[in-house]
Amino acid sequence: RVRLSGQAALPNLTAFIANVSNLFAFTWSIDDDTIDLSSPAMTTTGNTRSNLVVKAGRLQPGASYDLTLCASYRERVACSTINVIMNTKPYGGTCTLTYDVPV
């Protein structure tokens, strides 16, 4: 599972408005056209909130993804991108059990 959270602020208004994030429209996107972040099968949050939670097992192990969050306010848009590299399951190596007393 991947959990990401973003935020946006208006420098001169933050002190006067209790919940500034409600002024923004948020959109998450991903650099893989086969992944639909708005699908309930893919995320628990959808792609229009400041946070994004991608369900476990939906992204390819070992793959690298660029996730972008855009915040818009009065026709102005600002975006930020993060690169996420998914974990892979352990492989290779050995595992040896030894006992001090026979079993």
Q: What is the 3D shape?
A: elongated
Uncertain spans: none
> How many extended strands?
5
Sheet with the most strands: spatial strand order:
2-4-5
How would you characterize the largest beta sheet?
Answer: 3 strands, antiparallel
Q: Return Rg in Å.
A: 20 Å
Number of helices: 0
Q: Spell the H/E element sequence.
A: EEEEE
Helix content: under 10%
> How much strand?
25-35%
The rounded distance between the terminal residues' Cα atoms is: 39 Å
Structural class: mainly beta
Could you tell me the mean pLDDT? Answer: 85
Which features would summarize this protein structure in a list?
mainly beta, 103 residues, 0% helix
Task: Provide an overview of this structure.
There is one protein chain. The chain has 103 residues and is an all-beta fold. Helix content is 0%, strand content 33%. It contains no helices and 5 strands. It has strands at residues 2-5, 25-30, 51-54, 64-73, 76-85. It has a 3-stranded antiparallel sheet with strand order 2-4-5, with no helix packed on it. Strands 1-3 form a two-stranded antiparallel sheet. Strand 4 (64-73) and strand 5 form a beta hairpin. The protein starts with a strand and ends in an 18-residue tail after the last strand.
